[in-house]
Amino acid sequence: MIPGYTRIAEVNLTDRRVSVRDVDEKFAYDFVGGRGWTAKTLFDVPKHVGAFDPDNPLIAATGPLTLPSNPPFGSKMMFAAISPATGSYGDSNVGGHFGLRLRKAGFDALVIRGVNEKPSYLFVSDGDVDICDAGKIWGKGSRSVDEILRSLHGHDFSVASIGPAGERTVKFACINIDWDREKTRHGQAGRTGLGAVMGSKKLKAIVVGGNKDVAIADPDRLREISKGAGRFLVEKPTTPMKTWLREGTMMTFDWSDTMEALPTRNFQKSSFESAESINADAMQSNVIALRGCPNCTIPCEHVSKSRELGEEVHAAVEYENAALLGSNLGLDNFEELVRANYLCDDLGIDTISCGVVIGFVMEAFERGLISVSELGFEPRFGDAGSVYRLIRMIAERQALGDKMAEGVKTLATSVGRQSDRFAMHVKGLEISGYDHRAAPAMALSYATCDIGAHHNRSWAITYDVKGDRYSYGDDKVDHVIYLQHLRPIFDMLGVCRFQWVEMGLDPTLYAEAYSAIVGKEFSLQDLLWRSERVWNLTRTIRVMRKGVGIEDDMLPERDFADAVPEGSTKGARLDKNSFRDMLERYYSKRGWTSDGMPSKAKLMELGLEEASSALYG
Ligand code: SF4
To answer: Is the C or the N end of the chain the one with fewer CB within 10 Å?
Structure first.
């Protein structure tokens, strides 16, 4: 085995075969790990294989920096598959102990194909993979599943599980990680419907843990880099540590509201009149614990309580949850928000997509496009009871919930009457928490994101508001491309991006840490080049599966047709011609064709001969 890497387990659930191989040197260095590996593995999946086909691999991939002791970079990993939401490459990043314990179990990655005959779960420990009966936990919420499996296997194991929504292949079902709040950070691989892929395989959970070590080429050098990075976070963080520890990502909520970028009532408005009821200050009186991922010195998860409906439940409200389940649905009570968040987690639903789908239903109802008879009640913005009922209807695929479970794009098609103009998605993935009508760089980020509209690939809105907010300039295109190359590095290495994006940690440190681990020198530039390869590979997957054309990168009609109704950005909306021109400049700067396909020359320049053959023969 080469330093920094261990083994990959390939599991076939249909014939219950498990094969294990050492990580191949070329695969390791060419694609680094995490998102690089998931991109390459899914590129190799034949294009006729759909999300729910047995041959669609569900991949759990760590990175070389996902190490038992590697402060202060945190610990992250990727889940990935062909997405049921977009029909193309899908992934989702998650923290907590799971990735680290997968490495302790002796594996860098699991690649799971096939379908169980009966509901099962995987037990992965000390180099072995067992397929176990999940009959007794099928149908249960993720919280109970976590408790049951930990009581069976011990609290030194981590559990990734799906809820009833995943079992019913809700197309935005998530995978829950580590619900054992007493000890660790809870998290979700929320986006792109990977819980539904897991459900389609009748795979309820994956339990990982063990005592295996990862060989590191130069532990002394790694220790020094870690120490230096730790010192920086104590002495020179760009966000005051006190604010971060108090608020975490919720510190963005007031900023987003003030900047008029906060999705409100299905993205009709961009600021919320009751923002102070669900912001970071409102969170303080409900917080019961601060949790962090392993190896993190800047913990950000604020576990909060709700006593709504006489039942105490807990959830960690992050900015995205507060934006999409809160202001986007008009909820003005923090405990209601916590309960909605908890229901999504336990039932196994992505909070972002869920908030967009419910927001669409509420607006469609107001416009007379959905009737009471389809739901059994009046779904109103601001009514928490409506939100709770709709979440359950989605998870159970009950009545209109069956169509809601298909995602907002398909739902709008079935509602018809031009409701697609306010169905907020790109490529079938619901838009995350930033109104971008007065932020063209953020709009470009959403439009060109390789998994559909997700903010974390290039969080460019801060660039929009710093300069000429309404500009479609080349500098914004360059900035989006820069972020789209820098950010995958964290996902490939298996670490958190907040130490860089929020605290200002120098990205070159990550390249140095990688070099120390593998015993070969990699500069930041070397990693950025690999990022660009990954970006072109996932774009190639999209083109192979969905064809090519600028329309595939277009935003919902609301962004162009409905102006921001009030505030300092009143009247703002995107100009379609300017945005098309921006997209075309983006393609050109990337070395893509005028309709957005990676050019043969670009693919060859990046050493992606297989991708070139796939597109050009
Ligand atoms: Fe995990 Fe938050 Fe720390 Fe990142 S900053 S590693 S998400 S606890």
So the answer is: C
